[in-house]
Specification:
Chain lengths: 486, 486
């Protein structure tokens, strides 16, 4: 090919061009065609390069550029275009590009390309997850996913937290619960056996049975009790056979863990953290949020008014602008049992002290009763994990769940039990094998400190921020029962 | 306990205190004891809270604070201390703390605590990886690991790259090579079988055989050819039975992938990226780097002069301040064969066109011949992966390896083959099952573009930046053959 301007000049991103400051200049853009329309004399090409939800309108003179070339330009074709930026005549955009040269890097046969310029169902796009990045909805979702990941790192870095990579393959089960994936290199059909007929795991790669991690918390505590404040941000796994819009077998978690923090400090951090993420989204992703807000309103327009979600940007501001209510579990039970909702038998699940709250209860507290985000604390010890700090009442632990509108629990955490004897007693009661976790107990043996932490499911956060309804639509390549495509 | 000042006041981090701006003020610090020494009348406690390599010297008057209390203060005990900051009399520190109150959060029995205030071998500390965060060396390493991770996210974010989480569990093998870990929920001893006696993977969790990813590149290409520029930063796995100082079974990789980039752009990005990371370390981690530099010099003092490493900070500046040499593989072979080193048979491995260069060759080019970092390009196609762009000569591909002093290859990458027919032909030649990768080929079918990318092994970078010699010492909980502790 010739070294034309389009090849030799550095491309500008459409996000930059649409700021409208370059009118009159010659530029090169490169991207993929969203749509093409036009008449015999002039074609209008909507070009997108992934840098923004907005397309750049390219005006292509048929006579000047040639009919032959233009007829090969279809949805998803890849183009390099040189032209002059001019003020736009049409509405909705400030600037358009008068093309002087168009290079087709790659054609896209409209009879074969699966994603046409029409509305596809989210299910269809999920099956074509390798191409859905090219749609407006999913490019917005994945830009926001990026922005939230960056905001998380930025937040913790600015506060002096150390990012700790806890192990993915592990020989221990952090919570003594949860179905796990086995990681192995043993022969699948004829594994080596010991004399008693059991599997000889000493021959497996790691010399013992290993699984994919369900949480980095316990290892995180090892870091926090030396480095002060740490956080994890990595993949975690659950081999639960749950085919719902809220479950993934592989998902990403953020787990901060802090020495010298008590429950109050933990709550303060969680509230400040979530608000800073929401603020980052509002400050940096408004174009994408507005697009997703319209998408959500469109999706919900056939629902009855009282079943529709809060408008997306309004919902984000709701979290940002309200102090989170902080409420003991025991008081929450009283509020729920005294509610008209309860008296009229409108809750599906029972409300009894000692049972876990269901999503309907959490949402009632947030959306109906307080009309604010809520942090519930001091849960009954028997519905929480062994490592949570035992309160003086002998019945509750210093747990905290942060509840959000629409979604219910978005963060779960606790102060940790720092007393060795109390911890070991509780492990024994709950059947957690303390003898396999001497390394964990060493934090309580040598220089133990009050400490606390919490976990945020990254995809749970993204459902909230993007307004998407299915968790498979906020992770690039979802892993679910019977599905590990791409 | 009483609500003393130490409990009620917010703690200050030692990193802040050592700036020396708070002399005369009353402060609260919390951390772990590194050492305690002193006389009958006064004790000196070196306290560290993980925020910095430096300890705060705490002066404790025995009469005022009580002998009973002070005798329980041993290495690794956790303390909360209130006191007044005063200008230090001693050398090496600007400020010290006159303690008025000391609370022991957790004692540490000196007869049982494994890590004493003396020099331990790195092997011993590896076996106690849960406690090695409390040593100066490892706190420095993990603070630098954090800083480098943040610098990576910050770099790509500032350039408009999208952070993409490619899948950890995968049904495909990216490079058609490498030993992989199987991920399964099937019964390990009695897996379900089909009539022909083979395993019925339809009953496995994902309905087919699945493995831990060896690279996110192929999925990264799907993102880049829609979003423009993406990067991954996640764990990758190799089930290689290699017990060396350079191999991990679980490690973290960074893989940027960029649409509309050719090899030249790829090299420009890699050089700028690495330099920005090194600059970030020099700008933000100098205290830790100086400590690790001394550690390295100490470790190497018994080596002959010509086997010692370049001084750590000097080595980082060497990379920062030199333009990287860009050299075709074919010319590198000529340089090596014309060298006196070669003529005197000092290379252990042969130097023949068509074979891969060994570390000794790479280091010769960087350290002896050019005395600059080197990017080798255009490797013989038969020693590189199927997806690399085929050069016009029919013999080489547009690969690039970035070579660093001491370490050899730190980055490997290439422009990708964007032509569908050429790619499929090469896959057939190399036995890569194209029919299982239709999703990958769709990027070449619909709007294909020139694109390129590279991979940086995060721990490889950290070996370079920290000067540590064993890769198990730059990841918190190393996974290696027969080892998945913690």
């Amino acid at each position: 090919m010739n070294q034309t301007t389009t090849y030799s000049m550095k491309r500008l991103k459409i996000k930059e061009i649409l700021k409208g400051e370059l009118i009159g200049q010659q530029v090169v853009v490169k991207g993929w065609v969203r749509t093409k329309r036009g008449s015999k004399n002039v074609n209008f090409i909507a070009l997108n390069d992934g840098s923004t939800i907005h397309n750049l309108q390219v005006v292509a003179d048929v006579e000047k550029l040639g009919e032959e070339l233009l007829k090969d330009i279809n949805t998803s074709a890849a183009l390099g275009i040189t032209g002059e930026l001019v003020a736009s005549q049409g509405s909705g955009q400030s600037v358009e590009l008068n093309a002087t040269e168009i290079i087709i890097y790659g054609k896209s046969d409209p009879d074969k390309y699966p994603i046409q310029p029409k509305k596809h169902s989210l299910e269809f796009l999920r099956e074509n997850a390798h191409l859905r990045f090219r749609t407006a909805t999913f490019s917005a979702v994945f830009r926001i996913r990026h922005a939230m990941a960056f905001a998380i790192h930025n937040y913790f870095n600015s506060k002096g937290f150390v990012y700790l990579h806890t192990p993915i393959v592990t020989g221990s089960d952090a919570e003594g619960a949860g179905q796990m994936f086995r990681v192995t290199t043993l022969d699948a059909k004829n594994p080596p056996l010991l004399e008693d007929g059991s599997i000889d795991y000493s021959q497996d790669f790691f010399g013992k049975p290993t699984n994919l991690t369900v949480s980095g918390q316990l290892e995180g505590e090892l870091g926090a009790t030396a480095l002060g404040e740490i956080y994890t941000f990595g993949p975690t796994f659950r081999a639960e056979n749950s085919n719902t819009a809220r479950h993934l077998a592989e998902f990403w978690m953020i787990e901060p863990e802090m020495a010298f923090y008590e429950l109050q400090d933990n709550m303060d951090l969680a509230e400040d953290f979530l608000k800073s993420l929401i603020k980052y989204a509002l400050d940096n992703c408004m174009d994408d949020l507005e697009f997703l807000s319209k998408r959500l309103q469109e999706e919900e327009k056939n629902k009855p008014m009282d079943e529709r979600s809060m408008e997306l940007v309004e919902k984000l501001r709701f979290v940002l602008e309200n102090d989170f209510i902080r409420l003991p579990y025991t008081e929450a039970i009283e509020i729920l049992r005294n509610s008209n909702h309860y008296k009229k038998n409108k809750f599906q699940y029972p409300v009894d002290w000692g049972t876990d709250l269901q999503s309907e209860h959490e949402r009632y507290l947030v959306e109906k009763h307080f009309k604010k985000p809520v942090i519930l604390i001091n849960y009954p010890k028997d519905i929480k994990a062994f490592y949570m700090k035992q309160n003086a009442d002998g019945k509750t632990v210093a747990a905290m769940d942060v509840l959000f509108p629409g979604i219910g629990e978005i963060i779960g955490g606790s102060q940790r039990e720092e007393d060795l004897d109390k911890l070991v007693t509780r492990m024994d009661e709950m059947g957690v094998p303390a003898h396999e976790m001497e390394w964990y107990l060493d934090t309580r043996r040598f220089g133990t400190v009050p400490h606390a932490g919490f976990g945020l499911g990254f995809e749970r956060l993204l459902l909230f921020v993007t307004g998407m309804g299915n968790i498979r639509d906020v992770i690039a390549f979802p892993r679910t029962p019977k599905n590990a495509e791409f």
